Amino acid sequence: MNVAEKKPRIIQPDSLIGKRIQKMDAPEKASGRTRYIHDINLSGQLHGKILRSGRIHALIKSIDTSAAKALPGVHVVITAADIPDQRPIGVAKDHFPLKVGRVRSERDEIAAVAAESEEIAEAALKLIKVEYEDLPVIGNPEDAIKPGAPLIHPEPHGADGTHLHLKQGTSIAHKGKPDNIAMRFDYAHGDVVQGEAASDVVVEDTFKLHYVTHCCMGVSGMIAEFDASGNVLMYSNTQVPFLHKREFAEYLNIDPARIRIIQPPIGGGFGSKLDIYPFEVICLYLARAARRPVKMLFTREEEFLASPTRQPVLLTLRSGCKKDGTLTFRQVHTLHDNGAYTSWGATTPFVMMQTFSSLYRVPHCDYHTAAVYTNNPYAGSFRGYGNLQATFAIEQHMDMLAEKIGMDPLEFRIKNAQDAGEVTGQGMSFKSCGFKDCITTAATRSDFSRKFKENAANRNKPGNIRRGIGMASMLHVGGGAKIYPSDGCGTILKMDDFANVTLITGASEIGQGSETVLSQLVCEELGLPISAVTVVNNDTAITPWDVGVHASRTTFIAGNSAIGAAKKAKAKILAVAAKKYEAAESDLDLRGGFVIQAATGEAIVELSKLLRNLHFQDKAELVMTTFYYEPPSVHQDKGFKGDVSAAYAWGTQVVEVEVDTDTGFVKLVKVTGAHDVGRVLNRLGIEGQIEGGVVMGQGYAFTEDLMIENGVMKNPNFRDYKLVTAPEIPEMDIAFIESMDGEGPQGAKGVGEAPAICMAAAAANAIANATGTRMFELPFTPEKVYRALHGQTPKLYWKPWKAE
Amino acid sequence: MTELKHYFAPTSLDQAVECLKDGDVTILAGGTDLTPQSQAGRVKIKHTLMNVRHIPQLSGITLEGREIRIGALATITEIMEHPLVKEHLPVLVEACDHFASDQIRNAGTIGGNICNASPAGDTLIPLLVLNASVELASMPEAKLYRHSMPLSTFFVGPGKTRKSLCELVTCVRIPVPAENHVARFYKHGTRPALDISTISIGVAGTLKDGVMSNVRVAFGAVAPTPVRASQTEQALEGQRLDAATIDKVAAVARDEVKPIDDVRATAWYRKEMIHNITKRILSHVAQA
Fold first, then answer.
1. Fold of A309-481+637-789
2. What is the DSSP letter of B154?
3. How many CB atoms lie within 10 A of CB A590?
4. A3-33+488-629 has CATH 3.30.365.10 classification
5. ipTM more than 0.90?
6. Per-domain boundaries in chain A
């Protein structure tokens, strides 16, 4: 064949960026073929179950497991007494997986069983006899900080009052805590006294945020197995395999190199798998004791009882502005219900303070938080990480201040909104910022200003239906968050002799669509179709390090890492091609599966052919590259100042409602959103992520309510814990602001958490626009709204308080 | 988990009531209440679990004289879609349309909804205002015995009825409504489907020349059982449906009910809703 005689083949430029690309896991999930942890069974596997206290706060006087141990089919029964080397777990190391001496909440783990079937394990639990001595219960955080309040973590003593002599350590689980304050944050910039003195208008209100939980469709579970050499294999739903590998090793007192974590497809994460929970460590203990693989799966009731929650917050906000609409100061005090133990929920003030200090330009800001121990369920991390709570308060105050000075709420927001180039009082540096575009786009597309005025004018007309429109905006990290020593992600990329790519990434897929976006970014560099990529991302023995799925970081961090590896592969390929075809590397490019002349698009050689030539020769080389990306962000100083993320995401949502004043029922009619996402990578994926986030925010605002009364969960089921159902989902109009972040992969920023953040705040503003009544407490159930409309809701007030 | 000792699936009514004689039997029809209740430990499966789904005498929806007979095994979906029900009992269709979800409607039966005796049972309120009676079968001697009782006297408390352990509900009978019959049902909850009523209201009667007679009013989720509201009925009986009457009747309704606080609503809110929605329903009737 004489190539020279053929008409040159021209490969037209094409791009995958911004296209609507089906998620790579969609066919498997939609057809029910995905093998979740629930579908995995190992030969010789036992089934683990946990006995929970059922008491809220009590001393454990005795535990008798003899009858359970005697039940045929039971292999192992363990209590704290059987695990002398138990180490405390959690963010503050304040509890043991199996509780020692005392239970502090309804979900507390007393004993565990591994048996040949779930049924036998359940039956064995019923045979375990525990004697308790009840203690006074702290059912809300305000009681926890009263002088003389019972301590949730006193120095550990046994039932008879003698010191338990737990192995010496510095953790709270070992030495106790002399007060009920689990964690505190104090932040300030400027001088609020001066800010208040310069204010023409000041408002102060208390806001109350409730308990909700993630409600992952796939309940929690894991399988643990020790091999004959003592190496551990875990099938786990964790969002942070590498950090947890190290932590699990610590709890087992073994070398981390002995732990391998495989992550099967996960049935929902949303932040719930960001911490290690007692059941995971207990499952390891059972497997170690039984010398058999042990599988543990929650029931749905257990998923409610023993999963982390979003943290309930009591928040008093004082804000001021001048008559011309300039914000002057914000002072914030919050009290977080930490629950009985400390998980990531206690650290959400870290995100909340960013919203208070930097969503709008505010010269003076003062912020104090205490997360306090109670006997309630303990709070973890949840999509939005404190930002839903902070935004709920701030954005209502923006409307209230605007009303006080007689300014249009839209104009008031734009006047105080951040611009690109701003470095805030907290030291956050907004290199790309489409905030004002978000506000004006959402307002224009929803016809906000006209409707806002009309609704207010129609409030007193006859009839029982009132229409309302409200807006809220948000700021959230969009370029990772430097919290751990590293915020990086590694990639290994290998190409085979058919020009197919295996992308081995540290970034986990938890349903957010990372596999697809990372594949797109790689294909964009290498000029390949998306079908050319296989992603490997679920085995710590194979994948390179990553800090985990959190902080809306995967697209940004893992994306830059994948691009880095692809660029190295491209450079290697072009170098080879340049040599072989006697061209300058800079004149060549990759497109459509070919090496081309960059200027003309003329195909020079099929990439697969070039790769085969490279592989199958005397001096064979493989195209295999690695890259590690660490974002250029910094750790904050002790005063929480510094540029913690490489980029920031912005968004505005406008919510339209119809309020039925006869029933208090609020119908969510329409949501108009505008999100600064840097750049849209996968349009189908991002639309899905925004719509899902809106619905999650809708549930938080209107329907979801995990009811806890004195530590007792009243509704651990989907009958009375009300997720939004399909007919309730509103019309949505979502626009994307493409601010093309200079550091972002193809200009993109993170968006995972953003869409859930504004909904409750915007809904509150819409209800106020419709009825003239402000809602300070979530959720907006018909009864709560009806009560507020009929003057039956006493004005909330929590006196600002800060820990000494 | 309940350990199942004995399972029985009779194919005739005689076999079923014979089996019920010793009383230690749990009856299974659609299973949509029994399954979650037994799993949660609220109901204990007795010695025998009897599946009644294969008994032909319990199925079907037919016109018998001036009564519509709905077999106990009729599913909520069958009732919703049946021409006789659609023509004569649209208020029952309305209630079925707010009943749980499609999946549960396809499995759940009217006999089960009646015997579950939930104060918030969705079909019970329209059945009460339609003056339904329930037919029970048993075998006190060697022979099948059937008797009927008005549904309004059937309920005793949450999950409790006047049906003895030896009896089986075979059907409900509903008189075909006469001319000028009006009936309305309203379920108030927090969402359009898959919801337990916060309250529900049924109103039926004869509306002639703007005057209501033969009035029946029933409320759900405001008492230990679904209840007929006799004071509200009296306040409405023979009255012209004008604004003053409607206001008065709604106020009587609010005062008549004695609801409780629970996870779904407070007593105060339930009374308010009884008032506001009674008023709304009667206004709609007056305007229709």
1. Aldehyde Oxidoreductase; domain 4 (3.30.365)
2. T
3. 25
4. yes
5. yes
6. 3-33+488-629, 46-171, 309-481+637-789
For residue A532, report the phi and psi dihedrals to the nearest 5 degrees. -80, -5
The 3-class secondary structure across A687-700, one letter per residue, is: HHHHHHHHHHHHHH
Catalytic residue among A142, A753, A783, A804: A753
The domain made up of B6-51 has a fold known as 3.30.43
A 10 A CB-CB count for B259 gives: 21
Side chain identity, residue A177: K
Give the closest of B192, B198, B266 to A728, CB-based: B192
Chain B residues whose C-beta is within 8 A of a chain A C-beta are: 1, 40, 188, 190-196, 198, 263-266, 268-269, 272-273, 276-277, 280
Residue with tokens 């995995």: A40
A785: closest chain B residue by CA? B269
Residue B89 pLDDT > 50 = yes
Residue whose pair of structure tokens reads 């409900």 in the numeric block: B172
Q: How many CB pairs under 8 A join A and B?
A: 49
Mean pLDDT of A336-357: 97
If residue A390 lies in a helix (H) or strand (E), which one and from where to where?
Answer: helix A387-404
Does A753 participate in catalysis according to the annotation? yes
Contacts of B198 in chain A (CB under 8 A): 782-783
Average pLDDT, chain B: 96
User: What is the 3 state secondary structure string of A531-585?
Assistant: HHEEEECCECCCCCCECCCCCCCHHHHHHHHHHHHHHHHHHHHHHHHHHHCCCCH
Cβ-based contacts of B276 with chain A (< 8 Å): 662-663
- CATH topology for B56-175 is 3.30.465
Spatial CA neighbour of A93 closest among A142, A141, A153, A137: A153
Contact across the interface for B193 and A727, Cβ inside 8 Å: yes
Sheet holding B48-51, edge to edge: B6-8, B48-51, B25-28
| Residue A304, phi then psi, degrees to nearest 5 | -70, -50
pLDDT at B1 over 50: no
pLDDT, tens digit (0-9, with 9 covering 90-100), for B30-67: 999 999 999 888 899 999 999 999 999 999 999 999 99
